[in-house]
Structure to design on (359 residues):
């Protein structure tokens, strides 16, 4: 909004020329989102406690989690307000991709909100059924995929990291591929959100990586130099990624161990879906498996555990899935699991940045 209000005044106040620059607006999107979370956080936590939106802890989890019962959850509402607020304030609102990422952020947030509400407020321990949640996510993700493919100039080729000459064109099948990426990322972050700060840390790291991807993909000269897809209009998504970073740091301020608030499905589904759609827009779809490698590891640990459990009628690969519970049951203190997973996330993000040069 400020871009539209203040940049046109640069002819009279030359300082306002700065509002043209994506870098400037991204930095202020980071700071704005952080401040919204930091300043609103205490009130939101008090409000969630007052409304008794307290986490229900399943008995079959690590014993150390039982003391977390009652921790306010659904703090993801704060994250969504901060990200949407900062994006609306600093991005070019005539940009198609900005409305696509906001649609995913809020749409997946709503699905998570309904699940949390049923589980935490109506005390229905399961919330939405797994199938119901998956259907809602898939329908929304398919709509997003169709909107992207219908967008003038959107490229349905899939970028393969390290192999610049391998880029299969999926055509309309890109819609199905897009839905898989968005729903997969959403659920992988959801599964990862099982320890204090364990999801928001790597989400913030991934948002830094995709802020850089969005900036270079939207800059025709840099894209040409790096031999990556130039996506006209993608540069504005840099501001959305900045808002994700700011909100992630702001939420981590309260979600850091010992957490004062959990993000809930409203947060995890929303953030995961947002990373998925940003990966599609920046044409860095496959690299998401590297940037979000920690989420992939957590989701695969569940898939292998459940599969092996069923195949062997009760035997387990891990002491418990997802992977973070396995290390907890091995005796690693919660903060140690969290920080070591963050270190892995940072290393994977750095590796993913190298794909920009290694082609
Ligand atoms: C998402 N939710 C956390 C919190 C957070 C198939 C199976 C693997 C599914 C999986 C599952 O139910 N996943 C749901 C993970 C939960 O966190 C809430 O959920 C939101 C995110 N969606 O925002 O509101 C618990 O995680 C802890 N937590 C923190 N700090 C945080 O900042 O400590 C969360 C955020 C919270 C809190 O204790 O209650 C979760 O873990 O459920 N199920 C599981 O992951 C269960 N594993 C399991 O069943 N493993 C079996 C299967 C695979 C065969 C096995 O390995 O034998 C674990 N989760 C729970 N209890 N709650 C273990 C059992």
């Amino acid at each position: 909004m400020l871009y539209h209000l203040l940049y046109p005044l640069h002819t009279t106040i030359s300082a306002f020329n700065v509002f043209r620059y994506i870098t400037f607006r991204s930095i202020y999107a980071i700071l704005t989102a952080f401040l919204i979370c930091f300043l609103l956080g205490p009130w939101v936590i008090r409000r969630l406690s007052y409304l008794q939106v307290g986490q229900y802890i399943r008995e079959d989890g690590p014993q150390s989690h039982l003391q977390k019962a009652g921790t306010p959850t659904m703090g993801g509402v704060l994250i969504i307000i901060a990200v949407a607020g900062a994006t609306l304030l600093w991005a070019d609102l005539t940009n198609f991709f900005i409305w696509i990422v906001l649609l995913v952020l809020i749409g997946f947030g709503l699905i998570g909100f309904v699940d949390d509400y049923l589980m935490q407020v109506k005390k229905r321990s399961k919330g939405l059924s797994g199938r119901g949640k998956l259907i809602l996510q898939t329908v929304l993700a398919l709509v997003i995929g169709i909107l992207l493919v219908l967008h003038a100039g959107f490229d349905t080729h899939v970028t393969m990291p390290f192999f610049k000459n391998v880029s299969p064109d999926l055509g309309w099948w890109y819609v199905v591929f897009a839905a898989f990426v968005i729903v997969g990322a959403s659920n992988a972050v959801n599964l990862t959100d099982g320890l204090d700060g364990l999801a928001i840390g790597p989400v913030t790291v991934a948002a830094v990586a995709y802020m850089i991807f969005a900036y270079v993909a939207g800059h025709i000269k840099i894209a040409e130099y790096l031999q990556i897809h130039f996506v006209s209009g993608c540069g504005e998504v840099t501001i959305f990624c900045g808002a994700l970073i700011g909100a992630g740091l702001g939420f981590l301020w309260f979600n850091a161990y010992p957490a004062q608030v959990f993000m809930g499905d409203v947060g995890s589904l929303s953030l995961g879906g947002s990373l998925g759609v940003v990966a599609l827009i920046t044409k860095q779809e496959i690299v998401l498996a590297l940037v979000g490698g920690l989420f992939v590891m957590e989701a695969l640990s569940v898939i292998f555990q459940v599969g092996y459990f069923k195949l062997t009628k009760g035997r387990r690969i891990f002491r418990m899935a997802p992977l973070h519970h396995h290390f907890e049951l091995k005796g690693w203190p919660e903060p140690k699991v969290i920080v070591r997973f963050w270190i892995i996330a940072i290393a994977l993000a750095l590796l993913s940045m190298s794909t920009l040069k290694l082609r």
About this structure: The two ends are 38 Å apart (CA to CA). The chain has one domain: 2-53+64-354.
